[in-house]
Design goal:
By secondary structure, this protein is of the alpha+beta class. It has 7 helices and 13 strands. The strands form 2 sheets. Strands 5, 6, 7, 8, 9, 10, 11, 12 and 13 form a 9-stranded mixed β-sheet that branches. It has a 4-stranded antiparallel β-sheet with strand order 2-1-3-4, with no helix packed on it. A hairpin with a 2-residue loop joins strand 3 and strand 4. The two termini are about 30 Å apart. The structure holds uracil.
């Protein structure tokens, strides 16, 4: 692989910037300053360093975004800002959000160009746990909680026409929000369209604010404000792939 391709894949800069960086002696191959950007290196065996920081080669890119409200979870949208627009400085092709959050939902969104991982995490067969912080219009009764936990009819139908209820879920009460709205942490294992809002509607309640806190092993970094993102750590990537 060419050195400039390796550095580009690791988001060091554009091809032009990389040529400049190499010219300025900022890149070393096995401890020796690289002479040119187009030399060939072995991404596995050679030790590549930029500004004396060793780079580990990764074919794919993984980011955690704290999605803000008002932004759509798609790659392109003529009018509304998308989650991919937020990562525009990353200079990475083929990034996609792993699943969708509604325009008014905030919280954890994995954004990656690893299509296989996206496919695995979203596969209905895998039942990956997702935890949502749900702010509601009113308190849930014990009967509402049991219904949500056992599975509710949200209007979806099976092929034989019978109700396709939601899979068992988990409800944990949390302290009310600043406006006094009751809050729960709801764990679901599916990703149906508007699922959380429809589940609460099915028990006669209403979601007033929704934030996703986790997806499988990946937890929203509390340091990230809505609209901020960061690359996943190697440990986070490995845990997601397990
Ligand atoms: N369920 C919803 O209703 N909306 C979301 O954005 C995510 C889950």
């Amino acid at each position: 692989m060419r050195l400039d391709k390796f550095l580009g894949d690791q988001n060091i800069g554009t091809r032009k910037q990389i040529r400049e960086y190499v010219k300025n002696g900022r890149c070393k191959v096995n401890g020796v300053v690289a002479s040119k950007a187009d030399i060939h290196i072995d991404p596995v065996k050679d030790m590549i360093a930029f500004d004396d920081v060793e780079l580990t080669y990764s074919r794919f890119h993984y980011y955690m975004l704290n999605k803000p409200a008002g932004v759509v979870s798609s790659t392109k949208d003529g009018r509304t800002m998308t989650v991919i627009d937020i990562l525009k400085d990353e200079n990475v092709k083929d990034l996609s959000p792993c699943g969708r959050l509604d325009i008014d939902t905030e919280g954890l969104l994995l954004i990656t160009d690893d299509g296989e991982l996206i496919h695995r995490l979203l596969s209905p067969k895998k039942h990956v746990d997702k935890v949502y912080e749900v702010h509601m219009a009113k308190e849930l009764t014990e009967a509402d909680i049991s219904r949500l936990e056992e599975g509710v009819d949200i209007g979806d139908k099976k092929s034989d026409g019978s109700a396709d209820k939601t899979l068992p879920a988990k409800v944990e009460k949390a302290p009310a929000d600043e406006e006094g709205n009751p809050v729960i942490l709801l764990t679901i294992r599916e990703g149906r369209f508007h699922q959380v809002k429809r589940m609460l509607e099915a028990v006669g309640n209403e979601v007033v604010f929704l934030r996703r806190l986790s997806m499988g092993s990946l937890m929203l970094d509390e340091e990230l404000e809505p609209g901020q993102y960061r690359p996943l750590s190697e440990e986070e990537i490995n845990n997601l792939k397990k």
